[in-house]
Amino acid sequence: KELKGEGLNVVARRGEDVGEILVFVACSDELLTKSFPLHNPCSADRIQFVHSLVTSLGIRPKSIEWDMVDSIMCLHDTDFNHKWIHAWTSRSAFSSTSTFSDKVISNQFGSTIALYFTFLKTYTNFLVVPAVLGLTSYFLGMPYSPLYSAALLLWSVTFVEWWRAQEPATQSIFSEQKLETDWWRKDLRRLTSLPMILLSASLLVALLTSIFVFEAFVTKLYTGPGQKIVGFSPTLLFVVLVPKFMAVYQALAKRLTQWELDTDSEGEEFEQARTKKVFSMSALVAYLGLGLSAFVYVPFGEGVMNVVEAYFLPFLSDPQAGEVHAMASSTAAKLNPKRLEEQMFAYTVTNQISNTFVEVGLPFVLRKVEAWRSAKKKDGMASPKKRVVFADERPMEENERLFLEQVRKEVALPEYGPMVTQFGYVVLWSAAWPLAGIMAFINNIVELRSDAFKIVTHTRRPLPSSQSSPPTIGAWLDALVALTWLGAVINAALVYMFHPWTDTKKCASTVDKMHEEIFNSTLSGLKPVEMDEYAEVKELMKTALLIALAASHGYMLVRSLVRHVVGRIVATSVRPPVSASVSSSGLGEKEDVQWSAFWEYDEGVDEIRRVVKEA
Fold first, then answer.
1. Would you call 298 helix, strand, or coil by DSSP?
2. Which of 173, 238, 169 is nearest to 209 (CA)?
3. Which residues pair with 10 in a beta bridge?
């Protein structure tokens, strides 16, 4: 009654399970004309308008007054979905002149989804540059090439500044600009919550470092009972402890953000503040292992191995085996000089393949298993495609029957984090494995199609968000800026430490020279008292820090220049948005005579009486 009082068309039908009622709500053309007198509303506008009317009455899932409402969802437009998925097979899918442009996607799914695909397509197009540079450097260049690292820095800064300059132009496609306000009290509260974040980061670093040392050194030296089990223990520790820690920290980040903003609602500002806190920890999980390999394991691995042998192995080794671990010559043999490259391959290839299967393939498997279990539970001899038909159920037209079956399936049914993390792998560590760029490019070609496929197949249709300001990638842009700066610093240090600066086979890089003079000095019979055995280590670290500091200042100069040039280019190339139309064929989006009987037959009251009677 309340919904009909707002001028909405309402009808209830039986769901898939006994006691489940599907309440269909649609907006009449007369109400739309009154609400949108100046323009013809698109599909997303209609859905957002109906959703706002429903929620304005207090009808929300699991609310106190409406505790029987399980969820509110909008229905997929199957015709649009089929055409959209088919369009991804064409070469024009990445073109701005594509039939399914950003404006069309915005009209169908809302500006937030459209902005995500705009960002992903822009980022994928930019990845062509590091893909070509990486292939050239890998097959024709030297390891840890200074030219490749410098070009990578210029590319990363250009991409971030291009998106920063283009985002206002992108926003104008979706909605009009509106000013945002901010309060200084929020910044003060953020400062007071900083000690808790730093403490959490310190605990996470200690945990990840301990697992790294155990995996990289202890498992290579231990020869006692259960040696194979000990070899798998670091992976088990990581799988068990790190997700638990991140779950606790995410709950803490949510509480801290609520306290900072002095609100319990989870709006756009809340998400941006929480994203900064969560991604900082996720970045530690993603990149700390590579950092320890690059700046601890490879340059100082022999020294750390000797420390582990001297202080920890006597408590772990098998005394009956008579193993002796204190020989420097055997220490180097236990180290893996290609550890950094192998880690990059695992992160950029193996992990992305497994993630694609989990996101796209696994939901199919789980839904088939769940359908089989449900069918077996209801009736072991029944087909999973058959549904119970009640005696009082009126005969339906074929199109109406197919529509209800599709709705019952949907009832059973954009995140920037993975892309930003992948950007970090390319910018920070591809100097060690230049093929990371081409692997990221291939992954994103698949990711674009799989994300579109997930939206139309594995999830309910996204509700267009009602925002007072245009959508942006928000805090993720700050993360991209931080990663570009960090990439300049790390690449400078990596090139200095590992690039072969001479043509001779011995002492090719700075680290090789240090190994030659320090870790093999025992072969010459020198004693520690006769030489400062840490002088070369100190010199290496001091020089690397100075080079990293210079790279940081160079990054600021390059960013200022690129920002100026890109800003001029974007300002002169932005054209006024072109209007686009969306063909909508969903229920309630066009009046058709064949659907008039659908709104006249209501099964809701009969289903409630049936459930009460059977109870």
1. helix
2. 238
3. 25
Q: Is the pLDDT of residue 435 over 90?
A: yes
The answer to whether 306 and 213 are in contact (CB under 8 A) is no
Task: Tell me the helix, strand and coil percentages in the chain, rounded to 5.
Answer: 70, 5, 30
CA distance 172 to 159: 20
Check whether 134 has a pLDDT greater than 90: yes
Chain centroid to Cα 546, Å, comes to: 34
User: What is the spatial distance between Cα 37 and Cα 314, in angstroms, rounded to a whole number?
Assistant: 83
Model pLDDT, residue 328:
41
Query: Which contiguous run of DSSP H or E holds residue 510?
Result: helix 510-517
> What number of residues does the chain have?
615
At 275, list the tokens: 């994203």
Distance of CA 403 to the CA centre of its chain: 34
Q: Cα(529)–Cα(126) distance, rounded to whole angstroms?
A: 55
Is the separation of the CB atoms in 584 and 77 below 8 Å? Answer: yes
- Tally Cβ neighbours within 10 Å of residue 484: 25
Closest by CA position to 414, among listed 156, 157, 171, 110? 110
> Could you tell me which residues are beta bridge partners of residue 9?
26
Read off the amino acid at residue 466. S
Spatial CB neighbours of 32, under 8 Å, sequence gap ≥ 6: 41, 46, 49
pLDDT in tens, 472-511: 787 888 899 999 999 999 999 999 988 887 654 455 778 7
User: 461 with 109: CB under 8 angstroms?
Assistant: yes
Q: Per mean pLDDT, which range of 236-245, 265-274, 285-294, 381-390 is the poorest?
A: 381-390
How many Å apart are CA 109 and CA 586, to the nearest integer? 13
Burial class of residue 251 in the structure, from the number of CB atoms within 10 Å of its CB (0-12 exposed, 13-18 middle, 19+ buried): exposed
pLDDT score at 82:
84
Convert 440-459 to b/e letters by CB count within 10 Å (16 or more is b). bbbbbeebbebbbbebbbbe
What is the mean predicted confidence (pLDDT) over 92-113? 73
Query: Which structure tokens are listed for 338?
Result: 């290609």
| Choice between 124 and 51, residue whose per-residue pLDDT is larger | 124
Question: What is the three-class DSSP state of 400?
Answer: helix
Amino acid 388 reads V
Return the C-alpha torsion angle 343, 116, 163, 104, nearest 10: 140
What is the share, in percent, of the chain residues with pLDDT greater than 90?
A: 21
pLDDT of 168 higher than 70? no
Position of tokens 């582990």?
Answer: 308
Q: Please identify which residue in the block is written with the tokens 């292939």.
A: 135
**pLDDT tens digit sequence for 529-554:** 444 556 777 888 889 899 999 999 99
Of 408, 478, 465, 574, residue with least CA distance to 16: 408
Tell me how far apart the alpha carbons of residues 456 and 460 are, in angstroms, rounded to a whole number: 7
Tokens 């209609």 belong to residue: 46
| CA separation for the pair 440, 352 (Å, rounded) | 9
Question: Cα–Cα–Cα angle for 552, 556, 136, nearest 5°?
Answer: 75
Joined together, the tokens standing for residue 380 give: 């072991």
First to last CA, the chain: 26
CA angle 375, 380, 382 (to 5 degrees): 65
